[in-house]
Protein: DUF4878 domain-containing protein
Organism: Candidatus Sulfurimonas marisnigri
Amino acid sequence: MLTINDNTKKTLKDSLVLYYDALSCGDLIKLSTLMTRESYLITLEVLGFKHAFRNDEFKKLFKNIDSDENSLQKVESLISNDLAHEKRKHLINVISFESKGTDRVTVHYIEDTHPKKQYFSFSSDGWKIDYKAGRKKHY
């Protein structure tokens, strides 16, 4: 098991706060640097759902975000504008850190009075938000 030292805890806490700051101001470039690519694309799916449901052109672009950089940029631009207009602020209070092996950590926290978890994994790029890091690895 990974022993979570104070530097790692600070890095994870700072990343969590930056994640919410990036969401609240629509900074998807910053958001993408904090997350694994797969988790970032999942986030775009969630944030873009209402547009895909209402707009066929957006839906076509959205289907190609993983393979077409131009489609990704257009989708990011629209979602970014939506988030910037909402400007939601979140109060984040980290409660605990849970090791999930040698390269995965779960951060338990309170967001605006709601208990939450965020999963992180460690790679050559450092600690990244990784929605799948909470799952058990099968060897």
In short: Residues 21-86 form one domain. The first strand starts at residue 92 and ends at 99.
